[in-house]
Specification:
By secondary structure, the protein is of the alpha/beta class. The protein has a domain of 233 residues: Type I PLP-dependent aspartate aminotransferase-like (Major domain) (Aspartate Aminotransferase, domain 2, 3-Layer(aba) Sandwich). It is 34% helix and 13% strand. The strands form three sheets. Strands 1-9-8-5-4-2-3 form a seven-stranded mixed β-sheet. Strands 10-11-13-12 form a four-stranded antiparallel β-sheet. A hairpin with a 2-residue loop joins β6 and β7. α1 runs antiparallel to α8 and α2 packs parallel to α8. It starts with 25 loop residues before the first helix and ends with a helix.
């Protein structure tokens, strides 16, 4: 009888959508229990929100950190803090989640999309520079999949043009660019605590900055612009309530205390997979910039369909048979191809803020984004989390190799 190989056995991989791929334990339970027993669940009165903000700032080397309700809220807070006028423009990436784009439109900003590097799916200084206009109010730099953008050239460009930089670090906890953490290099950093991130509260977010003036505006925007602690507080401007609860903060605090271990585990197993996949013709593994560390929110392969029949979708279908649920072509199409952008479905039938856009700013057609099209066409996003073991990694590697052999042209 022929023995069954490891790759032929069906394995269930840990999932970040449930306990199998998350690090919750007695620590979070104890913190949440303490918060509940205190009877104080608002962060304006409790202790966990303040502790989370202080420890998050210290961990990332930022002067100020504030918790909020989601990663989308974090982007909204950052955009509100740079205070654009209706019709102003913010440059952002062509490959991002809608949650990072709708806050711009709610602030009356016209999103201007720039191209990406087809290998990393990240924006570059060159692609950003091509989109700068006299209406550019800020640049949003999105670090995709845990792989930081090349921030040196981007910051040099932004400082030369006197344009503030917002870092979307939703997927990039403890990734370094040189000696600084992603999210602390630009003017404002935004993080997500959504279910699948390196640390999670189910939903939640953080914003960080080293600028006292920006920090003041961020704090106020989270709190309906009410000046908590001021001698004569008032609602100083139009703002929302983006506070998290003490329960979320308690969970986040427990997660923060495990973040080093979580990131180290992801990086260790990702390095193992990179080694095991070396040499597969038509398959490229992730590459980080020379001065950067990749923290692997997901593990992305680049698939050459001139060598692998059917490309990333075909490979994904074969992997699915082995319970490896990957995402071919990631979001499939750029956000600007979604109905909200194509039909300008915003506030009533006003088409706001697009009705205020300068000529040429609303450039939402695929033919103008060939590098974005190639990046999405080639990418295969493998699931990843801190509970992966060597056995899981070898199972993925073996099945990728087998699938590629079956699809070899």
């Amino acid at each position: 009888m022929t023995p069954v190989t490891q790759a032929e056995r069906l394995m269930m991989l840990p999932s970040d959508q449930d306990a199998s791929g998350r690090t919750f334990d007695e620590k979070e339970i104890a913190y949440v229990t303490e918060a509940l027993r205190s009877g104080t669940l608002t962060t304006t009165k409790g202790k966990f929100g303040k502790m989370l903000e202080e420890k998050f700032a210290a961990k990332f080397g930022a002067k100020y950190a504030y918790a909020c309700t989601s990663g989308s809220a974090a982007i909204h807070i950052a955009v509100a803090t740079v205070n654009p006028n209706p019709g102003d423009e913010i440059i952002t990436t062509s490959i991002t989640d809608m949650g990072a784009l709708t806050p711009l439109m709610y602030r009356g900003v016209v999103p201007v999309f720039c191209e990406v590097d087809p290998k990393t799916l990240n924006v570059t200084a060159e692609t950003i520079a091509a989109k700068i206009s006299d209406r550019t109010k800020a640049i949003i730099v999105t670090h995709l999949f845990g792989n930081p953008c090349e921030m040196g050239p981007i910051m040099e460009l932004a400082r030369e043009k006197s344009i503030p930089v917002i870092e979307d670090s939703a997927q990039t906890f403890l990734a370094k660019c040189g000696d600084k953490y992603a999210g602390t290099i630009g003017d404002i950093g935004c993080f997500s605590l959504q279910q699948g991130k390196h640390m999670t509260t189910g939903e939640g977010g953080m914003v960080v900055t080293n600028d006292e003036k920006l920090a003041r505006h961020m704090f106020l925007y989270i709190n309906k612009a009410w000046g908590y602690g001021d001698e004569n507080p008032d609602h100083y401007f139009m703002a929302l309530n983006y506070r998290i609860s003490e329960l979320q903060a308690a969970v986040a605090l427990g997660q923060l205390e495990k973040l080093d271990e979580c990131v180290a585990s992801r990086r260790r197993t990702a390095a193992m997979l990179t080694e095991l996949l070396a040499g597969i013709d038509g398959v490229d593994v992730p590459v980080a910039a020379d001065d950067a560390t990749h923290v692997y929110w997901k593990y992305c392969l680049t698939i050459d369909d001139s060598k692998i029949e059917g490309g990333s979708p075909a490979l994904a279908n074969l992997l699915k048979e082995k319970n490896i649920f990957s995402a071919p072509r990631y979001i499939v199409k750029p956000a600007f191809m979604c109905q909200v952008f194509q039909e300008k479905n915003t506030l009533g039938d006003s088409h706001f803020p697009f009705n205020l856009a300068r000529e040429g700013a609303v450039d939402y057609t695929m033919e103008n984004y060939p590098m974005t099209a190639k990046a999405l066409h080639d990418v295969l996003v493998l699931p990843w989390n801190e509970k992966y073991t060597e056995e899981h990694v070898r199972y993925i590697a073996d099945n990728v190799r087998i699938a590629c052999s079956k699809l070899r042209k």
